[in-house]
Amino acid sequence: MSTDVLGSSSWVTDGGLETDLIFHRGFDLPEFASFPLVDDEAGRTALLRYFREYDEIAAVAGAGVLLETPTWRANPDWGRVLGYDAAALDRVNQEAVALVRSIDAAAERCLTSGAVGPRGDGYQAEVIDPDEAAEYHAAQVRSFAAAGADLVHAMTMTGPNEAIGVVRAARAAGVPVAVSFTVETDGVLPDGRTLRQAVTDVEAASPADWYGVNCAHPTHLVHALDGGEWQQHLRFLRPNASTQSHEELDASEVLDTGDVELLRSSTATIRDLVPSVAVLGGCCGTDSSHVAALWGVPRRTS
């Protein structure tokens, strides 16, 4: 399988799925998990509507569309809490790929990405051995590969070790893999490493095909950029709408949708500094209106 599925194209990806579902579409998501909606008729309908909005943005923008499965929490630990055993997780991960593929099956340029989240909390650094992480994430990655996902994307990684494990699991399954780290307001990862260090560590141990940043505002990310050649590895950008810290967002009971113009202008700054970014969408607090603004296309009204 070729790993150059991104090529030289630009790709619209989706926004803050879970925050959109909770605050805009009225869903209760125990443990912040969206994957159980794949098993629910109303949930599947909402997911299809959500993904179609981004497919429409891509069509207007003249870009490809890369849609991430709603499986950020669909791993053994979180699955167990929600009543999913190994067989049920395999099924729901594969069905999530099929659901997303049904959205863009007719598009000329479309990719389905199997979303992998951290074993623990996405805002807290976890101490985990890379080989242990590879074994832990292997089942989910195999499910994505079996269902025909175009790539795997590990998001909200708090340090390089777990990211290395996901890469190793993807290599064993024969599927391309992207790794996106999250950073705090000072541009440093939750485990204390710089973004440069994290990318360099993964590159030295088990290189991913692409790297990125998610779940951080562009004004936070800018502190991590030093102009080094390592930045050329960054291809994915999924910023938060809010400038609040992870700790503040975790404690908040209301949605901070941020300042769209600040998000747009600060994202433009990042893209000027990192022209290699090819996949652009959003993360917590963003919806299709934010992503449309990032792509300079008319805001959706329905």
From TrEMBL:
GO molecular function, one term: metal ion binding
Chain positions recorded as Zn(2+) binding sites: C215, C283, C284
InterPro entries: HCY_dom, HCY_dom_sf
Chain ranges of the Hcy-binding domain: 1-298
PROSITE patterns in alphabetical order: HCY
Keyword annotations of the record: Metal-binding, Methyltransferase, Transferase, Zinc
GO biological process: methylation
SUPFAM superfamilies: Homocysteine S-methyltransferase
Cofactor(s) it depends on: Zn(2+)
One protein family per Pfam: S-methyl_trans
Protein name: Homocysteine S-methyltransferase
